[in-house]
Amino acid sequence: MYQSLYPGQLSELHDEALLEHFRQGHVPAFEELYKRFWAALYLHAYRLLEHEQDAQDVVQEVFTAIWTKAGDIELTGSLAAYLYVAVRNRVLNLVARKRTYRQHLDSLQQFMAETDHSLLQHLSEKEMAAQIELEISRLPPRMREVFELSRKTALSHREIASRLQLSQETVKKQISNAIRTLRQKVSHYLFLF
Hints:
The chain is an all-alpha fold. Helices cover about 80% and strands about 0% of the residues. It has helices at about 5-10, 15-25, 25-50, 50-70, 80-115, 115-120, 125-135, 140-150, 155-165, 170-190.
């Protein structure tokens, strides 16, 4: 175990030494790393995403990963380089997930635009709503729970993930799968009708 350091001494250590102190259980070393890198990493993420909340989320995820997996981090260069690459990779993952989600929404909008409007006029709103609710009730339990929290309570993906103790990636996948499933079921219903 490293000797106990005073906060003033922590600020004098180089980044890799701080990481090593944190690995040995010295929490103030992590706090010093957080203070040292948060603003720069946030600006890096914000430049890439141009969205404040997403940039904050990305940086928070990187620091959460350091907190939980510090012992597994193997540096081949500087800690700063490692952190910048970690932020960049999380940004790229987020952009890919958003693109996929957007493609599903666009596909659903295109389907609705191509649907025969005269047929839709014959359907009552109540019948369609009832059919959609029935199909939602048929979703697998966890998928249904995630989808309903997203659509009926308007919780963010992060809030749902926190509430259900899931990753945000799992939440986004569950919602995307639910939309795809519902789209197939509703289109089948319209075809039969």
